[in-house]
Amino acid sequence: MLHEFERILIGPREMGLVDADAAGSGIDSFRLMQNAGEAVAALALARYPDSGRFVVLCGPGNNGGDGYVAAAAFARAGASLCIYGIGSEDLKGDAARARARVEAEVAPLSAYACRPGDVIIDAIFGAGLSRDVPQDVARIIADATKLRLPIVAADIPSGLDGETGEIRGAAFSATDTVTFMARKPGHLLLPGRELCGALHVFDIGIPKRLVMARAGKLWENGPGLFSDALAGPTAESHKYARGHVAVFSGGPTSSGAARLSATAALKAGAGAVTLVSPSEALAVNAAHLNAVMLREADSRAIRAMLGDHRVSAFVVGPGYGVSAALRELALSLLTKPTVLDADALTAFASEPKSLFEAIHAEGATVVMTPHEGEFGRLFPDLASASGSKVERARKAAARSGAVIVYKGSDTVIAAPDGRAAINTNAPADLATAGSGDVLAGITAAMLAHAAPAFEAACAAVWIHGRSGQVAGGGLTAETLVDVIPQAFPEMV
């Protein structure tokens, strides 16, 4: 599996360990700070060559040190410059050394009053912030927002938690964010992603091997995570070699969701798709489908599919209706790769442990695709817990034994072994009825291709997001299905 260095995400705590490892290996830590601060200044000078003045706001730690280095670079460039700081007389280590090299006056941060024409260099707090910003910082944030001032953030906009993407009281909305070596989860998780502006990653001279050694199993989702696991059709392929997906339909007035899943699976490359319908829904499903096969749902048919090696994966839940019968059906399917979506998740809300125990006992290949509400019903303690969406998804995956697709504009895919990915390519237009049913069908198609569950889920989420981009504004679930073949990455 290809994991591109550029897609690695590393938390603030781990990045601190990387910095310590670099210093311990003999790398000059002040040189790294100089590289960081000068990168911030270079980008700001390039982006705003006609700035009225650069206002550098420096905090009490190493992020502030980056700001002082940037201020010195502005002074050398002859730019109009003002510097404001917190605790500038109490700085230690490299940050104190950076402050000592600045000849200009450093005024208290509380004295800064925003004015039109300012370009703010935000070097107050870095990605490790875990408390609400002070009142003076919140005031400056509010004033800068009101005046719509350009803001270049060092590492992450002050006020954002680099681990969770959450706002700590108030946060700058940056036009540009300059971070170093690798992105943090908070750069991609919402609302952080929307506040970072254009995100620039600079190599400041830490060997990549040191970053890799501390990085966890977290990446931005993309083809590098899943392309090696997906096998496309060959000249010798027949329909069953490309996988056979069976989707279970609800009754005649609620069968549309299952049809969306079935057609999405077909468009996503499954060689054969069967819609398994109650007898009363067969006619309505037949009226809407051509290439998708139909089969009446009864116990004999289900036993036959479970024993048929040509049936590769199941989808159950979309439009099915919450019932004890659905719980029994879902549990019976776990001998083959299964996507549990929508009603199949809600059906276990009162007894999720029975599902999780069955998955673990069977060693089943299961992908669950909950949105926020469904996640809360299955994992109420996790949904209400503090911490990042990534951590909640990881804990849910470990508990359930399934790959969790925790849906949203910042969908997180998590595996029971701790691997996780944050998806970033989904447009807001995907928040439409039936979109999740389409995702369930794509996921089943990936499982039918014999992809492992984590890679299948990553592929499906990415292709789903890319389909939304291709379909464009005003998309519907039907138009989303139509463009799935155009959304595959070129390498697949």
From TrEMBL:
InterPro entries: CARKD, Nnr, Ribokinase-like, YjeF_N_dom, YjeF_N_dom_sf. K(+) binds at residues 63, 122, 158. Residues 222-491 form the YjeF C-terminal domain. AMP binds at residues 407-411, 436. Signal peptide: none annotated. Binds 1 potassium ion per subunit. It holds the Pfam family Carb_kinase. (6S)-NADPHX binds at residues 62-66, 126-132, 155, 257, 319, 371, 437. Keywords: ATP-binding, Isomerase, Lyase, Metal-binding, Multifunctional enzyme, NAD, NADP, Nucleotide-binding, Potassium. Residues 15-212 form the YjeF N-terminal domain. Belongs to the NnrD/CARKD family. In the N-terminal section; belongs to the NnrE/AIBP family. PANTHER family: ATP-DEPENDENT (S)-NAD(P)H-HYDRATE DEHYDRATASE, ATP-DEPENDENT (S)-NAD(P)H-HYDRATE DEHYDRATASE FAMILY MEMBER. Homotetramer. Catalyzes the epimerization of the S- and R-forms of NAD(P)HX, a damaged form of NAD(P)H that is a result of enzymatic or heat-dependent hydration. This is a prerequisite for the S-specific NAD(P)H-hydrate dehydratase to allow the repair of both epimers of NAD(P)HX. Catalyzes the dehydration of the S-form of NAD(P)HX at the expense of ADP, which is converted to AMP. Together with NAD(P)HX epimerase, which catalyzes the epimerization of the S- and R-forms, the enzyme allows the repair of both epimers of NAD(P)HX, a damaged form of NAD(P)H that is a result of enzymatic or heat-dependent hydration. This is Bifunctional NAD(P)H-hydrate repair enzyme. It comes from Rhizobium aquaticum.
